[in-house]
Write a structure and sequence with these properties.
single chain; alpha+beta; 4-stranded antiparallel β-sheet; two-stranded antiparallel ribbon; 2 helices; 33% strand
């Protein structure tokens, strides 16, 4: 999956909708305002950026893959957010202290990351 930085535009929305298709790659290579931010092999359902530049990704785990669902992208590395324990729900775990099944994420007007977890 390929993500690009586009100055002066709603970056989060455009990052979330940029796909690793030939068409998107061609568009990025022909527009000097668009620069690759990073590339990942993990399918992503959501991208959110805070006013101070923090980048949060919501990994799509509908294929049964394991690992964290929410990560913060730091120094070219996916870091489980807020930590690995929150991203490690198993049957019998306390759903008040774990992500169960995240539907979406966004940065609220307060600048904080908000996560919608359907809990099933």
């Amino acid at each position: 999956m390929r993500f690009s930085q586009i100055p002066n535009i709603a970056t989060s929305l455009l990052l979330a909708t940029t796909h690793s298709t030939t068409t998107a790659a061609q568009q990025c290579s022909t527009d000097s305002r668009v620069k690759d931010a990073f590339t990942t092999e993990t399918p992503i359902n959501g991208v959110s950026t805070t006013p101070d530049g923090r980048l949060f990704l919501l990994y799509a785990r509908v294929d049964g893959s394991t690992g964290p669902a929410v990560v913060e992208w730091k120094n070219d590395t996916a870091v489980p957010y807020p930590n690995l324990e929150w991203n490690s729900y198993k049957n019998g775990s306390d759903p008040a202290t774990h992500f169960v099944r995240i539907n979406s994420q966004r940065i609220g007007p307060d600048g904080q990351l908000w996560i919608v977890d359907v809990g099933s």
